[in-house]
């Protein structure tokens, strides 16, 4: 699928947060930073994964979250987008989808306050880290099943969330569907972020010739978890255009979509990709030929 070519430049802003256990306090903090981004000239604003709540205790999480239709935080972000006349991309909210499951859901909201895209995180972070940290997202969250792209005035955007970053086939599929911007709102752990954050983000940009926008959680959270921060804007050649630190704040970069075509012309790997058949080894050899053995 080929998206219509877009050439006009725009200003992108990433909201870096340190979400706690109170959804209202988190939304208030995000709203303040979104206002700062608008004042700095942002046309598009991305918040991190788990904008509304960072809670690992299952019972406490389900006490704090509600169905999408009843989520006042989502209503607040829609109102902000409408009042500020900007695109607000809520990196993700935890929303209830059944009595025992939530969705880790991203929302792209246009300047009229309408939701133009939703994406549920596909890959669940079920990992035991070397320092003793253990995560089982699949116990609480229902995995998404569909990759999602959406059209902005400046080009097509591909939606992903955090752990999706480690699955490059998803990003290739988004690029092949016309995405020139890839979004990776995240709450990377400090341990994995220090090892892999920058290299994986730059790799996704380089191999697909796309801009990457990665708004992050950062610092020591109320629930005891420590996230890496370092929100990133990366251009299609893999250069870091803007980067945050650990503290909450706004990261801003000016984006020229024409750089995508330029990068893809220099390295046209999207045109050269092939699908492969894998030759599987035979379970048992049908014939064994020994050379130079004893007679």
Please name the fourth-level CATH homologous superfamily.
Carbon-nitrogen hydrolase
Order of helices and strands: EHEHHEEEEEHEEHEHEEEEEEHH
Class of secondary structure makeup: alpha/beta
Q: Percentage of helical residues? A: 25-40%
Which quaternary structure do these chains form? Answer: single chain
| The top level CATH class name | Alpha Beta
What is the CATH-assigned architecture? 4-Layer Sandwich
Q: Major sheet: size, sense and barrel closure?
A: 6 strands, mixed
The radius of gyration over CA amounts to: 21 Å
Q: Could you write a compact summary of the structure shown?
A:
With 295 residues, the protein is of the alpha/beta class.
Give an overview of the whole structure.
The chain is of the alpha/beta class and 295 residues long. It has a single domain (10-272), classed as Carbon-nitrogen hydrolase (Nitrilase/N-carbamoyl-D-aminoacid amidohydrolase), CATH 3.60.110. The protein is built from 8 helices and 16 strands. It has helices at 23-39, 58-64, 72-84, 137-140, 168-176, 190-208, 258-266, 269-272, and strands at 10-16, 44-46, 87-96, 102-109, 115-120, 126-128, 134-136, 148-152, 155-159, 179-183, 211-214, 218-220, 226-228, 232-234, 240-243, 249-255. The chain has a 6-stranded mixed beta sheet with strand order 5-4-3-2-1-16. Strands 8-9-10-11-14-15 form a 6-stranded mixed beta sheet, with helices on one face. The protein has a two-stranded antiparallel ribbon with strand order 6-7. Helix 1 (23-39) runs parallel beside helix 3 (72-84). The longest helix has 19 residues, at 190-208. The model has no long low-confidence stretch (mean pLDDT 92).
